[in-house]
Amino acid sequence: MSQSPPPSFSYSRLAGAALGTMCGDALGMPVEGWSAGRIEQTHGRLDAMLPGRLPAGSYTDDSQMMIAILQTLVHRSGLDPAYLARRFLALYEPIRGYGGRINALMHRLAAGEPWDRVATDSWGNGGAMRVGVLGVLFAEDEEACRDAALTQCRITHTHPRGLAGAASQALAVRLAANLGAAGRKPEPTEFVERIAAKIEPIDQHVAQRLRAMPPLPHGDEAAARSALTAAYACDVSAAEAVPPALGAFLAAEGPKQAIVLAVSLGGDTDTIGAMAGALAGTYWGLDALPAPWLASLENQSAGRDAVLALCRKICDENC
Ligand SMILES: [Mg+2]
How far, in Å, from the CA of 49 to the mean position of ligand 1? Predict the structure, then answer.
């Protein structure tokens, strides 16, 4: 880290990434697995925190694993994967909705298996859903950003598509931090190509899926939803979940619209919402996130205020 604080790495952007992740996760939680049509028929424009299998404002596995990353950054000088694996296990609560493979992995960790032997060859979006905060921390250094994203992903997901998805999301957040700091609007084609070119050596399929981004009518939620749901499956795979999250961010005029649009796509709504939320919270900053959402976020021992305190500490040590 440099001596002077880089404008792209600030408390506002790091906390924006973290709480943006939590907002998208919590907004998407009650409709996880629903189709876009069912969400619209049931809720119209879903823009308020609702209860689902957890109380309103609760986060799921996406944010819980992000919190483990933040705790690791506070308690270690860098991203120590052995420590992070222990934090994943320490925070693990099955009620948060972990996938079957991660539940099995946690049981193996709990049984004492080494952290670097438990990952599965998964192409899922689990490495991407939690990684946004690293895009802010490594906003100055593209290589370090990609490497950190891959390091944390390999604990759970080793398939090239899973790894490329995690790197894509971290690099996209990094780009959002730099564009936000420069006061520049992201240009969708240029934004996507920058990410695709960087992750192509990891996995060509994910790069190709990023490049399949449809034209995005700026600020037109219904048109952007139609375009993104036609282009992507929006499911639990990294290749079909990361691109629409980027698309929701790129199409939106503000963080609320980005997150509402991401959740409205249906499918893996909490994760796509979490990833769009990390991008939007980074680009527009913490104070731009909707106050009613922040007020209703879960705020227990590892909830909203604890996450803000972790972000403050990481900034005090690194800014
Ligand atoms: Mg989840």
Answer: 15
Other CB atoms within a 10 A radius of the CB of residue 247 amount to: 28
Q: Where are the domains of the chain?
A: 11-318
Fold of 11-318: ADP-ribosylglycohydrolase fold (1.10.4080)
Q: How far is the CA of 28 from the centre of ligand 1 (A)?
A: 8
pLDDT in tens, 80-113: 999 999 999 999 999 999 999 999 999 999 999 9
- Tens digit of pLDDT for each residue in 263-287? 999 999 999 999 999 999 999 999 9
Cross-strand partners of 35: 266
Neighbours of 179 (CB within 10 A): 17
Cβ neighbours around 187 below 10 Å, total: 12
Indicate the SS3 state at residue 156. Answer: coil
Distance 79 CA to ligand 1 centre (A): 22
pTM: 0.97
Q: Which residue has the tokens 């957890």?
A: 54
Q: 280 C-alpha vs ligand 1 centroid, how far in Å?
A: 18
In the reported structure, the alpha carbon of residue 62 is separated from the centroid of ligand 1 by a whole-number distance in angstroms of 5
State the distance from the centre of ligand 1 to the C-alpha of 254, rounded, in angstroms.
Answer: 23
